[in-house]
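Changelog note: in this version the structure field was regenerated for every chain. One regenerated record is shown below for reference.
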Amino acid sequence: MKFLFTVQPLFGHFHAMVPLALALKEHGHEVAFATGQSFGSTLQRVGFQHFPCGLDLSGEPNAIFETLPAWEAVKAKYPSVGAQQVYGFVQALGPQMADDVITLMKSWQPNVIVRDPLEFGGYLAAESLGLPHATITWSIYINPKHLCPEALIELRQRYGLPDDPELNTLDRYLVFNFLPDAWQFPMAPFPPVTHRFCAPPFDLSSDARLPDWMITALPDRPTIYATLGTTFNQAPGTFQAILAALSTEDVNVIITVGRSMDPAQFKPLPPHIHLERYIPQTLILPRCDAVIFHGGYNSLHSTLWHGLPMVITPLGAGDQYPTGLLCAKLGAGILVKEQPPEPDAIRAAVRAVLEQPGYRIRAQQLQRDIKALPDLSEAVKRLENLARTHEPQLSDP
């Protein structure tokens, strides 16, 4: 069978999809990714076929959103930053991907399209051509119906699709969730076709590795890792707050600032603090005792996978603040709400998650819950069944 993954050309979006794509390949299926032209070398490095589709992105997607003719009116209509961002992903990025995928499928015909939760062109293309489609969710279920329904309804009309004012067709077939059963948002329930599986985090799409100093020279004391992700990470004020908070603490501090940020702007540094552009979290987290992060999905997934307590300081993406709230509710971490955060608040939170064992205990319970989920071979069976039947894959009550 053939499976086409449609994804925004952003590392965080791509990394969340790789485990399932690899599982499909291991079971003998043909897998390809449709994404921006410049992401081709990344896909080739991981071993996937690449079809250049959709727009390329560089830096934060907001730069493209703001080119929409009615963007100021959109911001006035939708005061929520999350709604604005979803509108941008639908209207600014959806049509080009849909057009390219529809053209692609004249020569390469997949059995199922699997999309990232903020990639809507693959959904439009699948609906246009009568193909089943699936979605890999992140920490919170993203549904334009509750944020900016007009954006997707208008596109359905533009592509000549039947009326669907409730957007019931969006995730009607199959949704994948790689977080534990306790990870639930009552105000944003996952669809009835959602299935949870154990997916090891993936972030090895580049040649980045552990720096030598981390292997040989870290003193024997707690190690704190801090990251603001790979997309919405243009937040020097938050990095400065983290540096100020931990500059006098008796810990090892490792901070990654992202590929588009220059670590030199934060120097000089005390000897116990190290800055890098990027280190794969799958390599660094086994050596850490706690994590400071922005609430992004991949960092959350990796932190829970390693059973580490966390401090969450949300930035601009709509899922980050709810993630911080739920981490705090589940007892696995502390939410620092202010943006930029106060150094004293970060310092107090880091001390708490290191010194109070309850945070680590709860994080380790969530780690066990993730690893007890059905493995990805079962997810492959779900996709195979969807390809054969074109029927919704309802989850058990």
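Spot check on this record: The first helix runs from residue 11 to 26. The chain has two domains: 2-198+373-389, 212-371.
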